[in-house]
Write a structure and sequence with these properties.
Layout: H1 3-19, H2 22-34, E1 39-42, H3 44-50, E2 57-62, H4 66-73, E3 79-81, E4 89-94, E5 97-103, E6 108-109, E7 116-117, H5 124-129, E8 139-143, E9 146-151, H6 156-161, E10 164-165, H7 171-177, H8 180-192, E11 195-196, H9 198-207, H10 216-227, H11 232-242, H12 244-248, H13 250-253, H14 268-281, H15 290-298, H16 303-306, E12 308-309, E13 315-316, H17 320-334, H18 339-351, H19 365-375, H20 379-388, H21 395-418, H22 430-437, H23 443-459, H24 464-482
Parallel strand pairs: 2-5, 10-11
Antiparallel strand pairs: 1-2, 1-8, 3-4, 4-5, 6-7, 8-9, 12-13
């Protein structure tokens, strides 16, 4: 199809998507037109309309200053907020739509932080030139009648057709203004399936150390969007290949360990990317799982520091799951993730190798209970991670691993039908322990509780008489050892 025909097809798709918003866009355009102000739909909203994936969040730009925007929106919107007013942005809601309207900007940057010295501009073109990528630098005029002309002074439509990310100005200038744009490039590669222009890739490789200017929280937010994209492997590989990963997630690139002819082992980096792909394939449709994806990517980061060349020419990675879990905690804490997120991802990394001790169904019921208890609410994700980790090229071994894990899942289900495996607790609670042993609340109660929980894990549910007898026997033996009188 000729390029002009592609233009027409993309624009037609965009206007179909935007016409579904005829009422809110038309009425909003009328408000600004009555005040003799310009209003444009801009940025990601235009890009997504062209791609046929317009969301309920819309971005606009205008020549009106923030205080005037507030005044114009107040009778039109259902709700307003001004948390971005220092950057010229006023937020509003109308029905189920969220929108942000930002005054034309012509910012300058100090090249020390990524925070601009905000300057309001006078023209749409100058506002578009300061944006991150040309595909995000297109606009559609909004009038009282609704959709007006399409504005594309920087070739964003052609870049969109060819699925190329390029910067409006020289990438060295754009990334020097805001280094986070380099990570945004990797994120858009993941989300949109685009590639970066050669000059953008070169600039990323040369300017990766500039990421030190960006706060951990902003980096983590971009990484999460990348991980949740349609093709996170492509985004991650771009980071690693350009050196950006060395600045924000060095443990991933470190898995590219040298493999020589005398010590053959699988490429841990490529293996981890494969596990990530396979974990995504196991997700519930339409429900991307951020914890699972992070765990799949990071599950083997403990291998490089635990690698050991064995005398038989093989390579071992003893306890890499333990080391890896600690590394996950350190990196995710540095990126300021929540305690829950750190705990969940590190626990999955810690547990991902345990199944390989299952062998051919040799685990006792006690071992199965401990597996479920240690996984807790993460068990469904652990199931997916372990299955995704079966990447051996030996088809028979792969099939045996998958069959063994299927058998383990069946055993878990069978035990769960008889016991509450998700809440394995002692058969006696704290009050019963204190009454039976005639002791007050304190450390001894906790010690007795832990003994009963271990007993419960080993033997399954006990009736009250049996639990009491076991506790009294343990207490007597403990008293004898420590010179205490038993009950």
């Amino acid at each position: 199809m000729p390029e002009g025909d592609n233009d027409a097809a993309l624009l037609a798709r965009a206007f179909v998507a935007l016409n579904d918003l005829a009422e809110p866009l038309g009425s909003l355009g009328a408000v600004f037109a009555a005040a003799d102000r310009e209003l444009y739909l801009v940025g990601g909203s235009v890009r997504d309309a062209l791609l046929g994936r317009l969301s309920t969040d819309l971005d606009f730009t205008t020549d009106a200053r923030p205080a005037e925007v507030q005044k114009l929106l107040r009778p039109w919107a259902d709700g307003l907020w001004d948390t971005g007013i220092e950057f010229g942005t006023i937020g509003a809601t109308r029905g189920n739509r969220r929108l942000e309207i930002t005054t034309f900007r012509a910012d300058t940057y100090d090249r020390v932080s990524r925070n601009p010295q905000v300057q309001f501009g006078d023209t749409l073109v100058d506002d578009l030139k300061r944006r991150d990528f040309t595909v995000n630098a297109m606009a559609v005029r909004i009038t009282g009648a609704g959709i007006g002309e399409f504005v594309d002074p920087l070739g964003g439509l052609v870049a969109l057709q060819h699925q190329i990310l390029d910067t409006p100005s020289a990438p060295e200038v754009s990334f020097g203004d805001d280094p986070l744009r380099m990570l945004r490039a990797a994120r858009f590669v993941s989300q949109l399936g685009f590639t970066v222009a050669p000059r953008v890739r070169t600039a990323m490789a040369e300017m990766a150390p500039e990421m030190s200017r960006i706060t951990a929280e902003r980096i983590a937010a971009e990484l999460d969007k990348l991980i949740l994209g349609a093709d996170p492997v492509a985004g991650i590989d771009l980071m690693v290949q350009t050196g950006l990963g060395e600045e924000v997630l060095p443990e991933v690139g470190a898995m590219r360990m040298a493999i020589d002819e005398h010590h053959q082992h699988k490429d841990v980096y490529q293996h981890s990317l494969t596990v990530l792909r396979q974990a995504i394939d196991l997700e519930n449709p339409g429900e991307p799982d951020l914890v699972l994806r992070w765990a799949a990517l990071l599950h083997d980061i403990g291998k490089p520091p635990t690698r050991k060349h064995e005398g038989d020419g093989g390579v071992s990675f003893h306890h890499h799951e333990v080391v890896g879990a600690k590394m996950v905690r350190k990196r995710m804490r540095a990126l300021k993730y929540s305690k829950q997120m750190v705990d969940d991802v590190s626990q999955l990394v810690y547990l991902h190798l345990r199944f390989h001790g299952y062998g051919d169904g040799k685990w006792t019921d006690s071992a199965v209970r401990r597996y479920v208890t240690d996984a807790g609410p993460l068990l469904p994700q652990l199931h997916k991670l372990v299955r995704a980790d079966c990447t051996t090229r030996n088809k028979k071994r792969a099939a045996r691993l998958q069959n063994n894990y299927g058998e383990l899942e069946q055993r878990i289900s069978a035990l769960a039908a008889k016991e509450d495996l998700q809440r394995v607790r002692p058969d006696l609670d704290g009050n019963a322990i204190m009454e039976l042993l005639d002791i007050p609340a304190g450390p001894q109660v906790g010690e007795a509780w832990r003994f009963l929980k271990e007993l419960r894990l080993d033997r399954g549910p006990l009736d009250p008489d049996e639990a009491e007898a076991e506790l009294l026997s343990w207490w007597a033996a403990k008293g004898n050892r420590e010179g205490q009188s038993s009950v």
